[in-house]
Amino acid sequence: MTIRVLLADDQALIRAGYKMILDAEPDLEVVGEAVNGRDAVFLARTTRADVVLMDIRMPEVDGIEATRRIAADDDLAGVRILVLTTFENDENVLHAVRAGASGFLGKNVGPDELIHAIRVVAAGDALLSPKATRGLVQHVLDQPAPVPHTALDQLTDREREVLALVAFGLSNEDIAERLTLSPLTAKTHVNRAMTKLGARDRAQLVVIAYQNGLVRPGDTPP
């Protein structure tokens, strides 16, 4: 299965570099290039991309607003957004995840890491660089919870357990092994938690888990 990728960056040289790297992979295809967030939203609709590589700082409409618009469009529910930026430590981490981004990487990543990230988010998993994760957790703790504590009460004990493991960064396979479940069952629990909490993807589950105290900095998986 070919993963269709849309590039959104206002710098032509960066787009050209991404395109050269991605088009060399047999399962990746660059289907469009956007120079600003407005074009990114338009091309996400017209190219039917699976993954958008989204720069944050772009003219006219920035990457966070473009991410928000794509995530809010029911017709684009299957589109995953991987944010690439030179600013991993600032509040853009939290804003991008809240807007609907499934991944967040610094622009200094190598080709192999970028390719891996695209495949991860295309499969429906979240991906954050270690630096971005630290920034996300810190900003989460400084913000009011977007989901009331009562929302967590809707979860079953197993779903709460799975939510906590998602917040630790475990994949469905890791969760399944730890809880002696099948990967499909683990994925089902994750999807049910997302539905009940109104989360678009795993990255937003991480925010909810930390802001509601289900997981705290320094904790380790049980």
Task: Spell out the blueprint of helices and strands.
Elements: E1 3-8, H1 12-23, E2 28-34, H2 37-47, E3 51-55, H3 63-72, E4 80-85, H4 92-99, E5 103-106, H5 111-122, E6 127-128, H6 130-141, H7 149-152, H8 157-167, H9 172-179, H10 183-197, H11 202-211
Parallel strand pairs: 1-2, 1-3, 3-4, 4-5, 5-6
What shape does the CA trace take?
globular
Overall CATH class of the largest domain: Alpha Beta
- Strand arrangement across the biggest beta sheet: 2-1-3-4-5-6
Radius of gyration: 17 Å
- Poorly predicted tracts of residues: none
CATH H-level name of the largest domain... which superfamily? Response regulator
Count of alpha/pi helices: 11
Q: Could you give the order of the helices and strands?
A: EHEHEHEHEHEHHHHHH
Number of DSSP strand runs = 6
The computed structural class is alpha/beta
Instruction: Work out the helicity level.
Output: 40-55%
Identify the CATH architecture of the largest domain.
3-Layer(aba) Sandwich
Summarize model confidence as the mean pLDDT.
Answer: 84
Percent of sequence in beta strands: 5-15%
Please, could you describe this protein's structure?
- The termini are far apart.
- The chain contains eleven helices and six strands.
- By secondary structure, it is an alpha/beta fold.
- The protein has two domains: 3-140, Rossmann fold (3-Layer(aba) Sandwich), CATH 3.40.50; 147-211, Arc Repressor Mutant, subunit A.
- The chain has a six-stranded parallel sheet, with helices on both faces.
- Helix 2 (37-47) packs parallel to helix 3 (63-72).
